[in-house]
Structures are given as structure tokens and as C-alpha cells.
Amino acid sequence: MEYNLTGAFLVGLMGAGHCFGMCGGLVGAFSSQLPAARRGQNPLAQQLSFLLPYNLGRILSYSLAGALVGGSAAGLGMLFDIDIYLLVLRLIAGVMMIAMGLYIARIWVGLVQIERLGQGLWRLLKPLSQKVLPVTHPGQALLAGMVWGWLPCGLVYSTLTWAVASGSASQGALIMLCFGLGTLPALLSAGVAAKALADWAQKRAVRLIAGLLLVGFGIQTLYIALAQLD
């Protein structure tokens, strides 16, 4: 399971380009609506007092989703007393890991089509996001992050397949927690730091190394699952 945690963190970290495109605008709009720093208050500290709870809320939603799908898989295993479906899910998780590696390496980008699966859920949740704006205190920022954590995202959905395949609520939550932590550098960065991170993540050599590493994790996952089927 350790390689799943490493892989989940790596997906979040190396998905920086996708994060900037998908959530960067939201974070930018969120930041622009924050209350101005009070006299004598450090502007960066004031901004972080909102951005940190916002991202905490987002990661909490990821972890909750991981716990729900992992716990559901565990419940089905106890209810029906069968393990074959978990092996099938591990095969799917291995395939999705390979797909994410190919996406990050920019060899194949079909993964983004998965985001269409969550459009219906987001239409239901979008009105909630509008109710917490504008954000005037950190508690609102936490709630806003929890809502926006359900924004349709191919990387999130793909990582959730690993959480399902873990067959455990705690492991599923941990996998999604690691993914969320990986996204923090991209979504907490601002200005020059954001551009530097984006430029680094988009370097061909970095993308290839990270992508091929994920492909290797996926192949290992497939091998283990196939071995268990024998």
C-alpha cells in the first residue's frame, strides 16, 4: 500500500499544470475577494489565514470521499464474503495508475474525459459554493474548500479508484489525503512562486520521470492483482 500513497502524492504534486488550469482560477477568484489586511497586519499572513483553511476543507473532502468509497468496498466484501471484486478493482486501479502516468508524461491525455462523470454532482453542489461567498472569515473559507473539493476532476476520480481498491475506509482516506497534500504546493503558491512551480512541473524530463514512475506503480499493481487471481 505504501507505493499507492507515494503514487497518490506524486499525482497531486505533478498534476500541478492540471491543478492550475482546473482550480487555479477558483483560487485566484477566492483570493481576490478576501478581506484586506488590517493596518499593521502582514498581508501574506492574512492571505494564508484564509488559504490554509480553504485547502484544508478541500483535502478533508478528498479524504471523506476516499473513506466512503474504501469503506463501501470493505462493506460489500463483508456482506457477500467475496474477494474477486476487490481483485478486479485492483486491476482497474492499476490501469488508471498507468493512465495517470501517461497523462502526466503527456503521452496520452484521454484521462480528462473522466471529469464529465462528475458534472451532475457539481450542478447540485454549485449553489452551495455561491452561498459561502464572499468569504469574510476562516470558517467560511473551510466550508468553501469542502464544497469545492467535489469539483469534477479527472485526477481526483482516478485516484479514487485506488481508494476503492484498497478495500478499507482508513486506507482510502489516507490515499486521498496524500493526493490532497500533493496538490498543496500548486494551490498555495502565488505570483512568482506559482510560475516557478508550474514551469518546473511542465519540464519534459520531470513529466517523463514522474509519469513513468506512475506507470511502473501501475504495472506492479496489475502484476500483484493478476498473481492473486491465479
From TrEMBL:
It comes from the Bacteria. InterPro entries: UreH-like_TM_dom (IPR039447). Keywords: Membrane, Transmembrane, Transmembrane helix. Residues 8-219 form the Urease accessory protein UreH-like transmembrane domain. The keyword Metal-binding does not apply. The chain crosses the membrane at residues 6-30, 59-80, 86-111, 171-193, 205-226. Signal peptide: none annotated. This is Sulfite exporter TauE/SafE family protein. It comes from Shewanella chilikensis.
